[in-house]
Write a structure and sequence with these properties.
By secondary structure, the protein is α+β, with helices and mostly antiparallel strands. Helix 5 packs parallel to helix 6. The relative contact order is 0.13.
Length: 602
């Protein structure tokens, strides 16, 4: 167990050092056997349970990212480090369980997390992200002023569990600004980081050329072919140990695709190859957790957005609900673990049940019932102009539509919008289907456009892209002017806000707000499904659990026991397409039809 640190005394050397391609911990030969576990994807009431499961896996280290936007969603507010944001408490818990900690503070983290962890208030500006642009580095410096001393006070050299800190994250697959990387390394050390610093990039010359630094350990990220990566690093860094900062033993899912899995035999074979001959590894993910709320990111490919699902199970050895999988026991054996498995294979779950889903308020009345400022301008305001990170924006205009059949054209919608004319839904528009027919009588109509952000891009050149109606709306060729734009900040709604939305009335059986009542004798995990419903958001006792969508692959939403209470619990649904008549509690997750994911592993 690690004692509380004394930051007043800093030894001259770091806990982890290397020599002759071998890693040492305080001078003793050592391998990092780590697993990725993100505090921001696990309910704080379950942090210790999940840490113990990683220890049972045979690991000696836990690594975690730190998402800037999670801690500081608004520039005007100081970063939060309390409650779910208490990264220091999480690190201390890992130390109390006898494990080391690797911290990956970014500022960019990818992680399939919204905007790669960068705050949207920063990427809203004219800024070259992840570069030596002063607009970017000045903001990072202010953030690191708050974050890094907290990490430094928990370093192993002063008695804490932190043994290594990552510089940036896979920068070699993004850019080639070496000045920025050097600045970032110096920024960490200037704020008190004395432990091992390392970079992490894909094992190709292109990525390593841009992502590495002299006198800083080079680690790699991979899903397969560790022998080839080992040879490449030996050629480039002949004295350094072989460290895999991310071993992708599973993969994440996008809406509309299959549930990605990786076979046990394939994963274990690669793991054995990594740890052979003294290699160090971090299993990504060892426990994936959940993209609660609207924190799931997205990828852009071939001009299309691919939003990530709410679950971040990632086919990890410790499943989303903490269950110990076949992969867990096979990896444990490969890692040479000898101690007992202290954790139960599965935590208790509620019995299956089906309860009515009762409509409470119409879509537009419910959304308008929550107070929010209105922006008025000739064109619709974007999310960034409204200071909105996630959620929706409700735009209203009053165009005159000539008699006859016409088309409403949305020249650049990011990402999806429900369109209503005189209160009736006429359809949904996307970048791939950007127009709808509309019938006119020559009179003025009320045009409501509810634009939904499906997830900010977390990887690649699309990082930092804006959301909303980014181009004009047309009636045929004519631009519609005069818009009221209202931010719908559902991720920030309080229980009072949600209650006001539900109480707005005017319910329909198609879209809007609905509720279900769940009676519980003793809180336990459960898995929520909405058969017959289309697409929307789900809250449990006022907590935004996440997004559901009938296109799958994910069917059930994991609801951890700490979100429930003995007695009556309220589940609230905001349906944007078509509402079913029931909520189901299931005793097993259903993440969709599995598909062996091989692209990144072969």
């Amino acid at each position: 167990m690690h004692e509380l640190p004394d930051p007043g005394i800093v030894p001259a050397t770091s806990t982890l050092t290397w020599q002759n391609r071998r890693l040492h911990r305080n001078g003793v030969p050592h391998r990092i056997l780590s697993g990725a576990l993100h505090y921001f994807r696990v309910h704080p009431g379950l942090w210790r349970d999940r840490i113990r499961r990683l220890a049972d896996l045979g690991l000696n280290t836990v690594d975690t990212y730190v998402p800037w936007n999670f801690h500081q969603p608004r520039e005007s507010e100081a970063p939060r480090f309390d409650g779910w944001h208490d990264v220091e408490r999480f690190i201390r818990l890992v130390g109390e369980e006898g494990l080391d900690v690797v911290v990956r503070p970014g500022p960019y983290i990818c992680a399939e997390w919204s905007n790669g962890g960068l705050p949207s208030w920063l990427t809203a500006r004219n800024v070259a992200v992840r570069s030596s642009d002063p607009v970017f580095t000045d903001a990072v410096a202010r953030w690191f002023d708050q974050l890094v001393p907290r990490i430094a006070a928990l370093q192993s050299v002063v008695g804490g569990p932190v043994v290594a800190v990552q510089v940036e994250n896979e920068f070699g697959s993004f850019g080639d600004d070496r000045e920025y990387l050097r600045w970032l390394r110096d920024t960490l050390t200037a704020r008190g980081v004395h432990e091992l610093l390392f970079t992490a990039d894909g094992p190709t010359d292109l990525m390593l050329d841009a992502g590495t630094l002299p006198d800083t350990l080079t680690a790699v990220t991979l899903g397969s072919k560790p022998d080839a990566a080992r040879r490449l690093l030996a050629e480039r860094r002949p004295d350094e140990p072989f460290v895999v900062a991310e071993f992708w033993n599973g993969w994440f899912d996008h809406w509309g695709e299959h549930h990605h899995v990786r076979g046990v035999e394939s994963a274990v074979r690669t793991l054995r190859g990594i740890v052979a001959d003294g290699g160090s590894v971090s299993i990504y993910m060892a426990h994936g957790g959940t993209n609660f709320g609207l924190w799931a990111g997205a990828n852009e490919q071939d001009g299309r957005l691919h939003p990530t699902v709410t679950s971040y199970d990632s086919d990890a050895p410790v499943a989303e609900d903490g269950s110990l999988t076949d992969k867990f026991f096979a990896m444990r054996e490969a890692l040479g673990a000898r101690g007992p498995v202290r954790s139960p294979t599965r935590l208790p779950v509620l019995p299956p049940a089906r309860v009515p889903l009762v409509p409470r308020a119409g879509l537009i009345p419910g959304l308008r019932a929550v107070p929010a400022p209105t922006s008025r301008a000739p064109r619709p305001a974007t999310f960034e102009q409204l200071g909105l990170d996630a959620g929706m924006v409700l735009h209203t205009a009053h165009p005159r539509v000539p008699a006859g059949e016409h088309r409403l054209v949305f020249t650049d919608v990011r990402d999806q919008a429900v369109v209503l004319v005189d209160g009736a839904v006429i359809g949904t528009v996307t970048p791939q289907a950007p127009s709808l027919p509309v019938s006119g009588t020559g009179e003025v109509v009320r045009l409501d456009v509810l634009v939904e952000n499906l997830g900010r891009v977390n990887y690649g050149p699309g990082l930092g892209g804006h959301k909303g109606l980014l181009g004009p709306v047309l009636v045929d060729r004519r631009i519609v002017h005069g818009w009221d734009s209202v931010p719908i900040a559902v991720q920030e709604w309080t229980s009072t806000d949600l209650a006001e939305a539900v109480a707005a009335g005017d319910p329909t059986v198609q879209t809007g707000f609905a509720e279900a009542t769940v009676s519980v004798e003793q809180p336990a995990d459960t898995f929520l499904a909405l058969p017959g419903s289309g697409r929307g958001l789900l809250w449990v006792n006022g907590f935004l659990l996440g997004r559901y969508w009938e296109i799958g692959p994910q069917v059930t939403l994991y609801c951890p026991a700490p979100l429930l209470r003995a007695g009556t619990n309220t589940v609230t649904v905001l349906e944007l397409d078509h509402l079913g008549d029931a909520l189901e509690l299931r005793d097993r997750p259903e993440l969709g039809p599995p598909e062996e994911y091989v692209e990144e592993f072969t």
